Amino acid sequence: MFNDLRIHLSIIMYMIGCFSIMIYNMFVIYRKRNRAKAMKKNTAGWIKTIHQQLAANNSNICPKHKKHLLKSLIRTGELIAFSHALKFFNRGDSKDLYKAYVRLLAQSTIFQQLALVYKKKKNAERAYFAYFISIHPLVVKSEDIICKNTTDTMVSFTKNADIYCRVNVLKALCKLGDLHGLVSVLQLYSNKAAFIHHKLLAEDLYNFAGDKDKLALKLWENYKLWSNNILLGVITFITIFSDMFKTAFLPVLQNQYASIDIRIALIHYYKKYIYEPALPIMLEYLTQTKSYELAIAAATTLSAYPGRPTTNALTSALESENWYVRYSAVSSLVELDAYPMGVSLQGVRPDMFINNAQSRDSNVQQMIEYKLDHANEKYVNASEVII
Amino acid sequence: MTSILEKFVLFAGVFFIIYLLIYATFTFLAVAVGAYKLRNQDRMRMLKNELKHTSIPISIIVPAYNEAAVIIKSVKSLLALDYQHYEIVVVDDYSSDNTSQLLIDEFNMKPYDRPINRVLECQPHIAVHEQKVGNVNLTLIRKLNGGKSDALNMGINACSYPYFICMDADSFLQKDSLEKIVQPILEDDTTVSVGGMILLSQCVQIEDGMAVSYKLPNNLLVSMQAIEYDRTFLGSRILFDTFNGNLIISGAYGLFMKSLVVAAGGYDASNIGEDMELALKTHVYCRNNNIQYRMRYASSAVCLTQAPSRLKDLIGQRKRWHLGMFQSMRAHWQIFLNLRFGVVSFLSFMYYLLYELLSPIIEIVGFLAIIAASHLHLLNVRFMVVFLILYVIYGVALSLCIYMQHIYQQNFKLSISDIFKALAVCFLEFVFFRYVLVFIRLRAFVGYRKNKKVWGTITRD
User: Fold this and answer.
1) For chain B, which residues make up each domain, given as ranges?
2) Residue B304 forms beta bridges with which residues?
3) Fewer CB within 10 Å, N- or C-terminus of chain B?
4) Distance in Å, alpha carbon of A57 to nearest chain B alpha carbon
5) Could you tell me the pTM of the whole model?
6) pLDDT tens-digit profile of A114-137?
7) Which of A80-84, A290-294, B223-227 has the lowest mean pLDDT?
8) Which of A15, A162, A367 should we substitute to test contact with B (largest number of B Cβ atoms within 10 Å)?
């Protein structure tokens, strides 16, 4: 069935393949070793070139330098070295030089042209270009026509892009404060159901260089356009800094068809920014809903809404079938009672609900005692700080 | 009788040629795909194609049994990780040494009557201690003895965050490893688990929580294990990862989505190969419930662990692993040749069955076939010797390739003497160590019943 020679030959073929990989690996190791040296040399070269440009003291980039930039920076390796050189200027005493040089670049169309070159490159290189723009915002004003062209080109990077390119473009647009570009790009991601983790999105949006309030309003204005994931990111971003959405969020919180994750994010918003009209909805989620996730979130948030209805709802939640609902209810009850520093606001002292719960569930009693231990410890620590 | 023996020898000849050629193809693909992916990862890192976020909350579960020698060092290293939002839950499985007391004293931990939601079955706890160290909540749970899986189930019950990491108490995470292991979650929300890369601590020098140099140690047993680990973690795991086919998320370092693990039933306390069992269980649970899922492998998330440096310890460890593999594959036999599991069944499961679980038996049959062929004068000695020489050269070259991939993946320096040393170790590993392992695996089933709750221990260097 088998010819001896053929079997040996097949092994030899694999061996040749294997030796090829070995040579490739050696080449990679060698290149990697030299890459660091080459990068250092290139960076030094760029530092020198930038110094020369700044020494010329022109109000515009000199044509020779512009030509050099356009010719060299189309290679990604050179762009990385150029980025290192800019980082060298952007620290210590030379920050003014950095600002001056960036100003010169911002007035030129160099990066607008480079964006068009990088548009034709592979995803990874496009992503690097976007990353470069995000750390060196070389196009200063978002309303500027140069900036607009550059950001429009970057938005087009995201067609058929991988996650890294999508995230880096988002970062760049946020750093440039380009509201229009940002909305377009989020629209594109939503339409394509392209995934971006909501925490990454919220972090990038928080770094928006323009008017964050305006951004938040614009994003919420279009909330029906967003995929759940993007909407979650938008709500997380708004929760970090703005209390202006208390009224706007309420109908979505009430909407039974809205995704549970979205409603949970909104409940967390109302923990940070107190809004009494949200209270009945949260009480309902705690007591009547079939979703334990919503009940847990509501139980946690209710610690920020002291009052008899809250205490009643939380106390009845101690009988929930779900362990986490009971635990969150206990946490909130203890928090309500211990705030501020052990003074009971509602006349519901810990021992009252201990007695109340004792007959029903020894587990709840254990939760209460555990939470009270922690609350007391916090109280003692706080007292020590005051003393 | 002679005719039956002849038929056996002829069949064995054909079978082993096919068996070895398939193995050669698999290992070649593993190395080639590994080389491509690692080079690509390196390039992506250089081009800042990375997702960084350090506030996805993670619980680190550290099951411990008689770990007094390392527990403080281990927890201190965990407290120094470059990550914002995590907690540490140490589960002491009723150690007979002072593992718990050392932790309590070192971190001034306080006792609490903490309620624990026992969604997963496990032995009851005896005491819970807590302390906040910096921003990190440190919890120590001392429980009745139930084995590693049982301790992990207790950790899952007690942990607070949506993702948890299980790791060994004698392992150390590289400073950036949490940031690296969450990357697949940031890339794809269907990721339910991520395996990390295991590096032998005897081979590396650590500076500021990072491995800065890599040398094969003089202890030959450890060196050969290092080559074997590299072949697994930088070859086959990467290959399996390309088609979501990994059947093991290493017990020394793996991240899991808590809700999914709980829904799937957690760790099986009767299984001593808890890592493979959970990975197989995840495949089964997700496929049976039509859940879209990804089980990823992150080669840049590095965990350092100590390999056995004595043969006795190695024998104990490998017997446990092999037995665990047997238990896990038997428990999830439904994956075998099941169309619903696709490549997981026809590639991964078959590979583990034929080239891992049954390989000691198959190799012994091979030796018997050679003896029988020689007895019947059917042995083509020339062919056999040439084949053997070619196969050894091929195997050594493959291991050397992987060794080099490891060097450039982690930016280690490589000298000429390192290459020669690696060449010698790869040769010895291929012609000697593999056969020691075959022997150990064959003996794995001796004492199978009585070993169920035994914790793996090795002598510390």
Assistant:
1) 1-50+171-461
2) B172, B199
3) N
4) 33
5) 0.91
6) 999 999 999 999 999 999 999 987
7) A290-294
8) A15
